[in-house]
Amino acid sequence: MLRLLRQPRWLGYLALATAFAIACSAFGVWQWNRREEALAAIERLESNYDRQPVPVADALPQPGAFDPDRQWTPVLLEGEYLTEEQLLLRGRWRGGQVGFDVIAPFRTADGTVFVVDRGWIDQAEGAEEPVTAPATPEGPTTVVARLRPNEGDIAGRGAPEGQIASVNLPSIAEGLGAPTYTGAYGLLVSEDGAAPGDVAIAARPVLDEGPHLSYTLQWFVFALGGYAAVAWGLREELRGGAATPRPGRVRRTDADVEDDILDRG
């Protein structure tokens, strides 16, 4: 077998199998990393979702930064909504229907603004506006919200006046002209101890790790498959798998035939 592997033809096959194995292994590692990310997201949800609320300044000591491990942590806000600055987050689905999320900046007691996603409201049929106007509370309010990271800008997606395509916190902060938390925003849990009646607040997400583990195993099996194909080809050649050429048929002349007749006579 080693003698065959030294032949250029089989060296080429082995090189192809190695390149194929490297590519498959890279895809396998990628799927494994995606599984690790999914497990980390599940762990954050389970660890933080039902915690007791903490003051927003404690959860976000640096308004422009955000620790991903803080996702879903409930925070306590005291202050008031800036109702004149609220926006509609377009293109949000709930129960098979498209609508808006109500994005309401909230000025805390220390003057820093924290952006709150109050919840979903249905879109009027055939119109770029909600069925009913949101009834965001005015005056002093106590809010509990769960932390979510800044969504950033979605390239190529615009929105009419008073609406946004994503929760891009630095952009929202520019329009407010006040110190604003730009590392994270909050999904509303309650206002003054109760759920709002004008919007549907976000439900607890259902997360799972997905099929990444099985995909990882499949890619590594594929990586071994290339070498298995080379080994099978070597075995077939060693066993004489190549067809043995049959001897050519000798053409007999008339003289040969006459000689045979005379010999038999």
Automatic annotation (TrEMBL):
Membrane topology: Multi-pass membrane protein
Keywords: Cell membrane, Membrane, Transmembrane, Transmembrane helix
Gene Ontology cellular component list: plasma membrane
Subcellular location field: Cell membrane; Membrane
Region of interest (Disordered), residue spans: 241-265
Bias kind Acidic residues: ranges: 256-265
Protein family membership: Belongs to the SURF1 family.
The protein, known as: SURF1-like protein
